[in-house]
Amino acid sequence: MNNPILIGFMGAGKTTVGQELAKELNQPFCDLDHAIEEHLGQSIPSYFEAQGETAFREVEKERLAAHLSTENVLATGGGTACQKANQMLLIEDERPVIWLSASDETTIANLSGEDWAKRPILADKTPRDVSNLKASREDAYRQTADIVINVDQKSSKAIAQEIISYLQSNQ
Ligand code: S3P
Fold first, then answer.
1. Cβ–Cβ < 8 Å for 155, 106
2. Beta strands of the chain (E only): which ranges?
3. What is the pTM of this model?
4. What is the predicted pLDDT for the residue at 117?
5. What is the pLDDT of residues 109-137, one digit of tens each?
6. pLDDT tens digit sequence for 32-48
7. Cβ–Cβ < 8 Å for 163, 20
8. Within 13 Å, how many C-alpha atoms sit on residue 147's CB side?
9. Which of 21, 48, 82, 91 is deepest in the core (most CB within 10 A)?
10. Residue 26 has pLDDT above 80, yes or no
11. Position in ligand 1 atom list of the atom nearest CA 119
């Protein structure tokens, strides 16, 4: 079975579900944001502040390509699948691409407090701005994914099980 790649907006639970999924599948897990931070030797917010988003997207693209050649369960960042070049890489990859989709309510609730502050894309954004940004990215997620899983009111365990059922029925 090919290990899946998780895409979706910030706060959809890509990292938590990815970890759960990797545990259930007994496979290694990689969080792309974490891999980028290790590669840069600094946090994403501080890199954004020093170099800006365009530079971040270049590093993200390069790290995505590097990690697609591994067999990890991979959780991408919220903007990864929205960059054309990344979208092509993800579509061409044989592995199943799973879009974790959350309602605006779930997204805002999951991004409250510290989680909001540590994401540079959310700096100075109101909840309405976040809904608009999320809406503007949904076509890209839809075009890139093999399947969409709605995550509202589901535990990460339940979401991981839903993904595993999908993977088993598509072997
Ligand atoms: C981003 C989402 C973040 C991270 C970076 C940019 C985005 O990942 O890659 O801050 O553009 O949506 P998470 O979705 O894991 O927060």
1. no
2. 5-7, 29-31, 73-75, 97-101, 147-150
3. 0.97
4. 76
5. 999 877 787 899 999 899 999 999 999 99
6. 999 999 999 999 999 99
7. no
8. 17
9. 21
10. yes
11. 10
Stretch 69-94: mean pLDDT: 96
The CA 10 to ligand 1 mean position distance, Å, reads 6
| Cβ–ligand 1 contact at 45 (below 6 Å) | no
For residue 150, give the 3-state DSSP assignment.
strand
Residue type, 28: P
Ligand 1 near 11 CB (within 6 A):
no
Distance CA 171, CA 166 (A): 9
* Sheet of 29-31, strand order: 29-31, 73-75, 5-7, 97-101, 147-150
Q: For ligand 1, say whether the CB of 134 is within 6 Å of any of its atoms.
A: no
- Testing ligand 1's pocket by substitution, the residue of 58, 110, 119, 129 carrying the most ligand atoms inside 8 A of its CB is 119
